[in-house]
Amino acid sequence: MALIELISPEVVKVPLTARTKLEVLRELAEVLHAAGRVSEVEPLYLALAERESLGSTGLDGGIAVPHCRTDAVRGIVAAVGVSPDGVDFGSLDGGRSRLFFLLIAPPSETASHIAALAEIARIARSKTLCSSLVTAGDPSEVARLLREASIGAG
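Predicted structure:
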C-alpha cells in the first residue's frame, strides 16, 4: 500500500500543539484515534515511546519519522504533523523537527512498513516539498501536497 493512500486530512495535524518529543507522539496517536484509525491511544503511545527510547527517529533537515510495529493496530496506519516552531526530537543534525511522519504497522506487515519508510525517505529528500509542507495552512493542503508529490513521482 502506498503511503499516500494512508494520508487524508483526518490524519494530519497543522499545527501540532506539542512542545516535547513525548507530547508529539501522544498528539499524533490521538489524531489517529480521532480519525478512527486506532481503537486506543495508550497502547500505541507506549509502543511509540518504547521505540523512541531505543534511538531517536529524528532525521536531518527538520524531519522526524516516529514509527513502530505493534499489535495495537490491525493494518498499517500513518499520520502527519507539522510544528512550524519545531520540537527538539533528538535529530541527527541537532536541529528542531518541524515535519513528523508517524508510521505504525502490525508485526506481520514488515514489507509494507519498510516500503512506507522508503517513501517517506524519498519525500524527505525534496527540500522544496518539505518546506511547502511546513508552511501549509491546513490539513487539506498537506494531504494535497503529498498526493501531488506522489503523482509526480509515479
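Summary: The mean pLDDT is 93.
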